[in-house]
Amino acid sequence: MTVLKTSLRNFFAHKGRMALSAIAVLLSVAFVCGTLVFTDTTNSTFDKLFAATSPDVTVSPKNALKGGDVQKTRTPPTLPASRVEQLKKLPGVTHSVGQTDSTSVTVVDRNDERVGPSNGGPTITTNWKETEQRISKVVSGHIPRGPTEAMVDSDTADKKHLKLGDDLRLIAIPGDFHVKIVGITEFQVTNPGAAIVYLTDATMQQRVIGVRNAYTSIALTAKPGVSNEQLKKTVIAEMGPGFKVQTKAELVDESRDQIGSFLDIMKYAMLGFAGIAVLVGIFLIVNTFSMLVAQRTREIGLMRAIGSSRMQINGSVLIEALLLGVVGSVLGVLGGIGLAVGLMKIMAGAGLELDTSELTVKPATPIVGLSIGIVVTVISAYIPARRAGKVSPMAALRESGMPADAKSGRIRGAIGVLLTAAGAAALVMAAGADKAADGSAFLGLGVLLTLIGFIVIGPLLAGFVVRALAAVVLRIFGPVGRMAERNALRNPRRTGATGSALMIGLALVACLSVVGSSMVASASDELDKSVGADFIIAGEQGNLIQPKIAERLAAVPGLDHVTHFKEAGDTRITTPDGKTTTTDRVVASNPTFADDLRTPTVSGKLVDSYGEGAMSVNEGFAKDHKVKMGDTLTVAFQHGRSAKLKVAAITSDDTAFNKGAMYINITTLERYVPADQIPMNTMMFASAKDGQESAAYAALKKELKHDPQIQVKDQTDYKEMMKDQIGGLLNLIYGLLALAIIVAILGVVNTLALSVVERTREIGLMRAIGLSRRQMRRMIRLESVVIALFGALLGLGLGMAWGITAQKLLALEGLKTLDIPWPTIIIVFIGSAVVGLVAALAPAFRAGRMNILKAIATD
């Protein structure tokens, strides 16, 4: 009981000193809980949507497109409309409804602006059917009744300022057509971000999928007392095995799996950043309790002298840590819920709409948050607690502060050197690996070992690095600068731990900066070397180029040629040894592709693969299947017939673009695949006639003015696009890493604040012998700056080593240019100095305002 009282007294006596550590626990736990609440809410929202929209049994073609897949051919797989009545007559069926859905239609308003979500959400066109009333309610106008009428959802109408009577243009594979909005419907369940346009059955069939009297699927409702499994068996018995028949549970699982992979990646990535913040928080907590124990050495010695055991002293410190963990974790769980709401608002801007009224907080979430916060805090305080338990009664006779253990320091240094050396060796092995898969394992090991090594060796490095930094940064400030240097060196273990906390976040920033910059530089260099075409034409958000648009582009004035680029889909290739392999890497294009995208070969010339009955294979395929020049392969095309094609070229795998592709002439694809099953262009290339580049570019843009789903870019624009995409991703990652850096800044603030308290008497004496308040504040700020620069120097150096090694692995995948973003590195280094200044404001202010006599009288 006495131990508990002592712990409570010390905790509340030092509550100000504990506050920053509690904030670190709060932020770390909040990020973990916020991620869990956000992903649970997202999963729950989609589960409810899938459950509400899925019929008891769904019948679709065997090769039906999966949810979210884009229709690649002119005609999607369908079922004849007669099947609806056939299935309606089956015992156990209450309703049989034909469904026609498509995500390959672009919908624009009268200003040619996209009506669908602008940040990645799908635009779904579908036929209005009675089953829609389960999830939608018509709130204005009426349902579509004719070929020129449409109904849209209220969310889309509000965001895009649409109203009854507005004209919409639908850009579909069979051709464009106009409709008028005659109704607006409101979802009765949360719509996570899709835009829905309802049309009549006939309009969907004729104008969208291009097949009359057909549906993409049939929805069945079971009679009361008939299970979905029973109904599925009845359907299979009636229709045979050539169809895809799914129960509601199976369809929900399939839909959940399709969205779940993306959500899982997002979840684990965010938890990874939360883990980094927890790791940085550990340094702050260890520092806090180490300094508190050091400051209470005499007090602990007196407690030992009057009979307190080691276990009681140890327990007292751990109870303080437990209280800190509980307070920080409880606040962190509440903060996590608030963070989840904020994430939902942010994701709304990215196209994922979630209703905060459906916030899902599972019992496991607060349990996980509290467990992480409390366990991490108690474990972090264990070493300081153990050190406190070793304080002898004779310490009551000494000045406050614990003597450094030279032996343990030497052992720690030796371990740190060994770990760092092992990590460096792993990085060297990764950089020299022949395969990216092998090298990545060494890279991960090297990153882990060098990080731990630098953390362990931090106090040893502090002595050398801080002196070097001080010679450059502090000496110009005279005696005040030298005092700041001595203060930073007074406790190398504390300086090392504080700098290491900042080092972790900045190492990741530097690593990602090097990797991102190298990716951009490599892609730009590869673009210069490989792309001979003047213009690259591609769809946005996964859109393909419709046949009519492709035909129009071929007629644009000023162009020398236009090259088609079609992915043949799943293709079965039988090699001379009789083995069959399925691949989706067969690409059909025009012979001009050999000039538009210069692909290196190890045998033959790429242009030869566009000859009659010819093709190319990639180097890896040739090695794996012992294929050589002149061999004849049997190629079975998806939706088409088989062809005998001779290998006329073997392309090198040493390329960044279309690595592993196999090329055939587009006429070969057209000869063996029916016209209505020919895939659409994934992208296209074009080159202008000599001297007409600017005019041709303007003509292409003008031709695509009314087709916002297709973009044309010259090589300069394409490079900028790649730079923006990679830069946007890096900015997102930097934003997430900011949490760890904020926690590290709190560590600097806490270290300085506790250091000021520890040196209260010393500060009073310095003020008494003439040190002014301004000089005192400057000394504290300079000490903070040098600690921050110490952490930045270690972090940036370590991060650049990681980034350079990662680039060597990327070089095996074709990204060969190393580019170190020195402006970013320099800005981060200077920014660290600013961080040090800001972190020192409060401690420096407190030191400057100390009463001199009271400070001198302090024990």
Quick recap:
This protein has 859 residues and is α+β, with helices and mostly antiparallel strands. It has 25 helices and 26 strands. The mean pLDDT is 86.
Which keywords apply here?
859 residues, alpha+beta, eight-stranded mixed beta sheet, six-stranded mixed beta sheet
Could you explain how this protein is built, in words?
- The chain has 859 residues and is an alpha+beta fold.
- The protein folds into four domains: 1-56 and 261-404, no CATH class; 63-241, no CATH class; 458-530 and 715-859, no CATH class; 544-708, no CATH class.
- Helices cover 56% and strands 16% of the residues.
- The chain has 25 helices and 26 strands.
- Strands 4, 5, 6, 7, 8, 9, 10 and 11 form an eight-stranded mixed sheet that branches. A six-stranded mixed sheet has the order 24-19-16-25-15-26.
- α2 (15-53) packs antiparallel against α10 (364-389), α11 (406-431) runs parallel beside α22 and α22 (773-811) runs antiparallel to α23 (822-839).
- The model has no long low-confidence stretch (mean pLDDT 86).
